[in-house]
User: What shape does this take?
Amino acid sequence: MIRIILFGAPGAGKGTYSAELIKKYKVPQVSTGDMLRAEVKEGTELGKEAHEFMKHGQLVPDQMVIEMVHKRIQEPDAVNGFILDGFPRTVTQANSLDLMLHQMNIELSGVIKIEISQETILSRLTGRRVCTNCGATFNIATMKPKQEGICDKCGHNLIQRPDDQPTTILNRLAIYQKDTEPLIEFYKNKNLLRPVQCEGPYNEALARVFAALEKMAKV
Ligand code: AMP
Assistant: This one.
Protein backbone atom coordinates (compact mmCIF):
# COMPACT_ATOMS: atom_id res chain seq x y z
CA MET A 1 0.00 0.00 0.00
CA ILE A 2 1.52 3.31 -0.99
CA ARG A 3 0.02 6.75 -0.88
CA ILE A 4 2.71 9.13 -1.93
CA ILE A 5 3.37 12.54 -3.34
CA LEU A 6 6.04 12.78 -6.00
CA PHE A 7 7.41 16.21 -5.42
CA GLY A 8 9.81 18.23 -7.55
CA ALA A 9 10.25 21.16 -9.89
CA PRO A 10 8.66 21.15 -13.34
CA GLY A 11 10.92 18.93 -15.44
CA ALA A 12 12.26 16.98 -12.47
CA GLY A 13 10.84 13.78 -13.97
CA LYS A 14 7.73 13.26 -11.83
CA GLY A 15 5.71 11.93 -14.75
CA THR A 16 8.48 9.64 -15.96
CA TYR A 17 9.09 8.12 -12.52
CA SER A 18 5.34 7.80 -11.87
CA ALA A 19 4.91 5.74 -15.03
CA GLU A 20 7.45 3.23 -13.64
CA LEU A 21 6.05 3.23 -10.12
CA ILE A 22 2.46 2.53 -11.12
CA LYS A 23 3.59 -0.60 -12.99
CA LYS A 24 5.20 -1.99 -9.86
CA TYR A 25 2.72 -0.91 -7.22
CA LYS A 26 -0.47 -1.22 -9.31
CA VAL A 27 -1.90 2.04 -8.00
CA PRO A 28 -3.11 4.94 -10.15
CA GLN A 29 -1.02 7.97 -10.98
CA VAL A 30 -3.02 11.06 -10.12
CA SER A 31 -1.48 13.79 -12.24
CA THR A 32 -3.35 17.07 -12.06
CA GLY A 33 -1.40 18.30 -15.11
CA ASP A 34 -2.56 15.29 -17.18
CA MET A 35 -6.13 15.65 -15.91
CA LEU A 36 -6.19 19.33 -16.82
CA ARG A 37 -4.69 18.69 -20.26
CA ALA A 38 -7.42 16.08 -20.86
CA GLU A 39 -10.07 18.69 -19.97
CA VAL A 40 -8.44 21.18 -22.35
CA LYS A 41 -8.36 18.59 -25.14
CA GLU A 42 -12.03 17.75 -24.62
CA GLY A 43 -12.92 21.43 -24.64
CA THR A 44 -14.91 21.31 -21.39
CA GLU A 45 -15.78 24.50 -19.49
CA LEU A 46 -13.19 23.63 -16.86
CA GLY A 47 -10.65 22.97 -19.61
CA LYS A 48 -11.27 26.35 -21.23
CA GLU A 49 -10.85 28.13 -17.92
CA ALA A 50 -7.74 26.15 -17.01
CA HIS A 51 -6.13 26.75 -20.38
CA GLU A 52 -5.97 30.50 -19.76
CA PHE A 53 -3.64 29.88 -16.82
CA MET A 54 -1.75 26.91 -18.22
CA LYS A 55 -0.67 28.54 -21.45
CA HIS A 56 1.20 31.21 -19.46
CA GLY A 57 2.72 28.67 -17.09
CA GLN A 58 0.59 29.95 -14.19
CA LEU A 59 -1.08 27.73 -11.64
CA VAL A 60 -4.81 27.18 -12.06
CA PRO A 61 -6.95 28.26 -9.09
CA ASP A 62 -6.53 25.97 -6.07
CA GLN A 63 -10.20 25.03 -5.85
CA MET A 64 -10.16 23.64 -9.38
CA VAL A 65 -7.48 21.03 -8.69
CA ILE A 66 -8.59 20.34 -5.12
CA GLU A 67 -12.00 19.21 -6.34
CA MET A 68 -10.48 17.09 -9.10
CA VAL A 69 -8.16 15.29 -6.70
CA HIS A 70 -10.88 14.89 -4.09
CA LYS A 71 -13.04 13.02 -6.59
CA ARG A 72 -10.19 11.05 -8.13
CA ILE A 73 -8.75 9.56 -4.94
CA GLN A 74 -12.18 8.27 -3.93
CA GLU A 75 -12.52 6.17 -7.06
CA PRO A 76 -12.33 2.38 -6.56
CA ASP A 77 -8.92 1.96 -8.21
CA ALA A 78 -7.37 4.27 -5.59
CA VAL A 79 -8.46 2.15 -2.62
CA ASN A 80 -5.02 0.54 -2.35
CA GLY A 81 -3.10 3.74 -2.83
CA PHE A 82 -2.11 6.40 -5.33
CA ILE A 83 0.78 8.44 -6.59
CA LEU A 84 0.11 12.15 -6.58
CA ASP A 85 2.10 13.82 -9.34
CA GLY A 86 2.01 17.63 -9.55
CA PHE A 87 -0.33 18.01 -6.57
CA PRO A 88 -0.22 19.67 -4.10
CA ARG A 89 1.56 22.73 -5.45
CA THR A 90 0.55 25.34 -2.87
CA VAL A 91 0.18 25.37 0.90
CA THR A 92 -3.59 25.77 0.45
CA GLN A 93 -3.69 22.60 -1.65
CA ALA A 94 -1.55 20.74 0.90
CA ASN A 95 -3.87 21.76 3.75
CA SER A 96 -6.90 20.65 1.72
CA LEU A 97 -5.22 17.34 0.99
CA ASP A 98 -4.60 16.85 4.72
CA LEU A 99 -8.25 17.46 5.39
CA MET A 100 -9.41 15.09 2.63
CA LEU A 101 -7.15 12.29 3.87
CA HIS A 102 -8.27 12.87 7.43
CA GLN A 103 -11.92 12.66 6.39
CA MET A 104 -11.19 9.45 4.48
CA ASN A 105 -9.34 8.13 7.53
CA ILE A 106 -6.16 7.45 5.57
CA GLU A 107 -2.57 8.71 5.78
CA LEU A 108 0.19 9.59 3.37
CA SER A 109 3.07 7.11 3.24
CA GLY A 110 5.48 9.89 2.40
CA VAL A 111 6.66 12.58 0.02
CA ILE A 112 9.45 11.70 -2.41
CA LYS A 113 11.36 14.85 -3.26
CA ILE A 114 13.15 14.52 -6.57
CA GLU A 115 16.41 16.44 -6.30
CA ILE A 116 18.11 17.66 -9.47
CA SER A 117 20.04 20.77 -10.47
CA GLN A 118 18.50 23.82 -12.14
CA GLU A 119 20.72 23.13 -15.16
CA THR A 120 19.31 19.62 -15.62
CA ILE A 121 15.77 20.91 -15.19
CA LEU A 122 16.25 23.43 -17.96
CA SER A 123 17.69 20.91 -20.38
CA ARG A 124 14.89 18.41 -19.56
CA LEU A 125 12.17 20.97 -20.16
CA THR A 126 13.57 22.43 -23.36
CA GLY A 127 14.27 18.94 -24.77
CA ARG A 128 11.00 17.36 -23.67
CA ARG A 129 8.69 16.02 -26.37
CA VAL A 130 5.32 14.43 -25.65
CA CYS A 131 3.06 12.14 -27.64
CA THR A 132 -0.12 13.83 -28.86
CA ASN A 133 -1.99 10.55 -28.44
CA CYS A 134 -0.79 8.57 -25.40
CA GLY A 135 1.11 11.26 -23.49
CA ALA A 136 4.40 9.29 -23.37
CA THR A 137 7.38 11.55 -22.74
CA PHE A 138 10.74 11.62 -24.54
CA ASN A 139 13.72 13.94 -24.59
CA ILE A 140 15.64 14.92 -27.72
CA ALA A 141 18.91 14.93 -25.74
CA THR A 142 18.60 12.19 -23.15
CA MET A 143 15.70 9.89 -24.00
CA LYS A 144 15.38 9.95 -27.77
CA PRO A 145 12.53 8.15 -29.53
CA LYS A 146 13.69 5.44 -31.95
CA GLN A 147 12.40 7.51 -34.87
CA GLU A 148 12.61 11.28 -34.67
CA GLY A 149 9.27 12.92 -33.92
CA ILE A 150 7.40 9.62 -33.55
CA CYS A 151 6.19 7.95 -30.35
CA ASP A 152 7.83 4.54 -29.69
CA LYS A 153 4.73 3.35 -27.89
CA CYS A 154 1.88 4.18 -30.25
CA GLY A 155 3.38 5.67 -33.43
CA HIS A 156 1.71 9.08 -33.16
CA ASN A 157 3.48 12.43 -33.51
CA LEU A 158 5.56 13.96 -30.77
CA ILE A 159 5.23 17.67 -29.98
CA GLN A 160 6.74 20.22 -27.65
CA ARG A 161 4.23 21.17 -24.94
CA PRO A 162 3.18 24.81 -25.42
CA ASP A 163 4.20 25.55 -21.83
CA ASP A 164 7.70 24.16 -22.51
CA GLN A 165 8.64 27.27 -24.53
CA PRO A 166 11.65 29.08 -22.96
CA THR A 167 9.82 32.14 -21.54
CA THR A 168 7.01 30.03 -20.10
CA ILE A 169 9.56 27.65 -18.56
CA LEU A 170 11.18 30.49 -16.63
CA ASN A 171 7.77 31.60 -15.41
CA ARG A 172 6.91 28.09 -14.24
CA LEU A 173 10.20 27.76 -12.38
CA ALA A 174 9.69 31.12 -10.65
CA ILE A 175 6.18 30.07 -9.60
CA TYR A 176 7.55 26.76 -8.34
CA GLN A 177 10.05 28.59 -6.14
CA LYS A 178 7.50 31.03 -4.80
CA ASP A 179 4.37 28.89 -4.35
CA THR A 180 5.50 25.27 -4.25
CA GLU A 181 8.87 25.20 -2.48
CA PRO A 182 7.28 26.20 0.87
CA LEU A 183 5.80 22.70 0.86
CA ILE A 184 9.28 21.31 1.53
CA GLU A 185 9.15 22.78 5.06
CA PHE A 186 5.49 21.78 5.36
CA TYR A 187 6.23 18.09 4.81
CA LYS A 188 9.57 18.17 6.61
CA ASN A 189 7.70 19.34 9.71
CA LYS A 190 5.36 16.38 9.36
CA ASN A 191 8.38 14.08 9.04
CA LEU A 192 7.15 12.85 5.65
CA LEU A 193 9.81 14.29 3.35
CA ARG A 194 12.17 11.80 1.66
CA PRO A 195 14.71 13.57 -0.59
CA VAL A 196 16.11 11.39 -3.39
CA GLN A 197 19.15 12.43 -5.42
CA CYS A 198 18.09 12.06 -9.05
CA GLU A 199 21.07 13.55 -10.88
CA GLY A 200 22.98 11.16 -13.14
CA PRO A 201 21.99 8.04 -15.12
CA TYR A 202 18.23 7.52 -15.25
CA ASN A 203 18.22 3.84 -14.21
CA GLU A 204 20.32 4.57 -11.15
CA ALA A 205 18.07 7.45 -10.11
CA LEU A 206 15.00 5.27 -10.64
CA ALA A 207 16.54 2.56 -8.43
CA ARG A 208 17.02 5.16 -5.68
CA VAL A 209 13.38 6.25 -6.00
CA PHE A 210 12.27 2.61 -5.73
CA ALA A 211 14.51 2.08 -2.69
CA ALA A 212 12.99 5.12 -0.96
CA LEU A 213 9.52 3.80 -1.72
CA GLU A 214 10.27 0.33 -0.42
CA LYS A 215 11.04 1.87 2.94
CA MET A 216 7.72 3.65 3.13
CA ALA A 217 5.38 1.09 1.54
CA LYS A 218 3.09 -0.74 3.93
CA VAL A 219 2.18 -4.32 3.03
P1 AMP B 1 2.33 19.73 -15.04
O1 AMP B 1 2.05 18.78 -16.15
O2 AMP B 1 2.25 19.08 -13.68
O3 AMP B 1 3.62 20.47 -15.23
O4 AMP B 1 1.16 20.83 -15.06
C1 AMP B 1 0.93 21.63 -16.19
C2 AMP B 1 0.17 22.88 -15.79
O5 AMP B 1 -1.11 22.51 -15.24
C3 AMP B 1 0.82 23.73 -14.72
O6 AMP B 1 1.78 24.62 -15.25
C4 AMP B 1 -0.40 24.45 -14.15
O7 AMP B 1 -0.83 25.48 -15.02
C5 AMP B 1 -1.45 23.37 -14.16
N1 AMP B 1 -1.44 22.58 -12.91
C6 AMP B 1 -1.15 21.25 -12.78
N2 AMP B 1 -1.23 20.86 -11.51
C7 AMP B 1 -1.59 21.95 -10.79
C8 AMP B 1 -1.82 22.20 -9.42
N3 AMP B 1 -1.69 21.23 -8.48
N4 AMP B 1 -2.18 23.47 -9.05
C9 AMP B 1 -2.33 24.44 -9.95
N5 AMP B 1 -2.11 24.29 -11.27
C10 AMP B 1 -1.73 23.04 -11.70
In short: The longest strand covers residues 2-7. The CA atoms of residues 196 and 209 lie 6 Å apart. Residues 10, 32-33, 36, 53-54, 57-60, 65, 86-87, 89, 93, 163, 172 surround adenosine monophosphate (CB under 6 Å).
